[in-house]
Amino acid sequence: QEIVTFRQVHKIYNNGTVALSNFNLTIKEGEFISFLGPSGCGKSTALRMIAGLGEPTKGELKVYQKSPKEMISETNDIAFVFQDSNLLPWRSVLDNVMLPLELRGISKRKRKEEAMRVLEMVGLKDYLKAYPRELSGGMKMRVSIARALAAKPKLLLMDEPFAALDEMTRQGLQLELLDIWKKEKTTILFVTHNVFEAVFLSSKIAVMSARPGRLSSVIDVNLPYP
Ligand code: ADP
Ligand code: ADP
């Protein structure tokens, strides 16, 4: 099933910056696709538009056959993980992860059950009561991933989530993310400017060119994952 379709999408910001130019791409269910390219090539713009943050200036973008705005307002099927983990500092780890479920009116017992499940998956079940300031960068990122997964999104959007982390932490989280992808069967869209990260993680790579926001090629990665 086609989940995301860009058809001849152009994105020109108000100040005249061309971020995407004649961008065509189809993303299918279950893929782990990386947007790879140098800084400023339009990766974040593409990802943000899928999340309903900004519309194409020209062309068509469909997410589950709908406009991203419709998709966001009607369902909770899209989750976003940013580079900076974006946790609420006054809420504990558990409360941060339960937040999206709270907003959906899910019962307290169910919220806790689901939050515990995802926190266990990211190896943080011993930190339920900790506050973000007590956690390392890698742990905060884990909480942020758990929070995104708690809502069981069909589509997980990640914008350079590991960029600010040290190499060891990054590698640990990359392996965890691959595990999660296989277990949860979520479609993952991942923005990175790191070639190794893209090759290691993805089933597909959308290589973008700096000259303004064009897609250079789409590569199938067939690595023999363990
Ligand atoms: P990447 O994620 O690949 O680094 P971006 O999508 O963030 O690229 O940016 C693509 C281009 O659009 C860059 O030239 C950037 O400076 C510009 N840009 C991004 N957001 C805005 C904005 N809100 N207003 C104006 N220009 C923007
Ligand atoms: P990323 O680290 O994901 O590539 P950026 O640093 O490009 O993100 O952008 C961070 C924020 O600043 C975004 O909201 C983006 O839209 C905005 N932004 C980026 N470049 C510009 C620009 N040239 N003018 C105005 N806003 C911009």
TrEMBL record:
GO terms for molecular function: ATP binding; ATP hydrolysis activity. SUPFAM superfamilies: P-loop containing nucleoside triphosphate hydrolases (SSF52540). CDD domains: ABC_NrtD_SsuB_transporters (cd03293). The keyword ATP-binding applies. Keywords: ATP-binding, Nucleotide-binding, Translocase, Transport. Residues 4-226 form the ABC transporter domain. PANTHER family: ALIPHATIC SULFONATES IMPORT ATP-BINDING PROTEIN SSUB (PTHR42788:SF13), TAURINE IMPORT ATP-BINDING PROTEIN-RELATED (PTHR42788). This is NitT/TauT family transport system ATP-binding protein.
